[in-house]
User: Fold this.
Amino acid sequence: MTFFAEHALFLTGPTASGKTQLALALAREHHAEILSMDAYAVYRGMDIGTAKPTLQERSKIPHHLIDLRDPTEDFSLAEYLQEARKVAEDVFSRGKTPLFVGGTPLYLKSLLFGLFESPPADETFRQRWQQQAQEAAAAGDSHFLHRKVQEIDPRAAQRLHPHDTRRLIRALEIFHQTGQPMSTLQTQFEKTVPENLRSRIHVLDPPREELHRRIEKRVDAMFEQGLLIEIQNLLQKYGSLSFTASQAVGYREVLPYLAACSRGEKPSLEALKEEIKAHTRQLAKRQCTWLRGLLGAVL
Assistant:
């Protein structure tokens, strides 16, 4: 168990399950402050597509771990845990309870169990593989690194995006340094929550039909609130988004849509909405699968 596990509270569940409003009620009940447990709420300006709590909601209960980075930056799990510990210690020091709220299961697992002790970085190794990847990409092979990881660690390759260069190289680096696949070292992925901690974790799990209706409504609302304008403004301000930021559902679909529009094409707005809804349903399904693995009978 980590510093957080036995003392903080947690509220989780799939996207669009209603966590924001319940979090406010739980925070009032438990004299708590809310710490975001969302991998994309850390980015400034990515408000509508990540369904961040509104300024009005944040004025009712203090919220933390939101707007930590510009969307041009990557943000690692280790960085999140470092920030989370710092904020949680401050909340504890003021006699309040940290309430972690969000649907990123990897953040929840790591808050409960911590990170595995990974070997130090080898910059020479990283630069060599970075160069090989660039040469392969120039020759038309954009999946070079992913294929190499697949050879030595199929489980890690299944989790990692083929274009996530930084994490793919890290998987190769860990295997090179330890002789073991990264996935076998990351034992926290196999753990389930002990019974004595279950009462500290609140899980929202709406019936599938209800969840799908909520997703439909949320995506429609995002477009009404100005999702396209938000992303246009981000591109105008920053030029482009980091790999991590651009993988957020809603953003990763809108970015190529806007690029097509800039080329004079006329892609279908309704098709874009349906694509985002489908990807959000898939995300919710993945989140539920992760949470069932972690929490067992709770879900």
Summary: The first helix runs from residue 19 to 30.
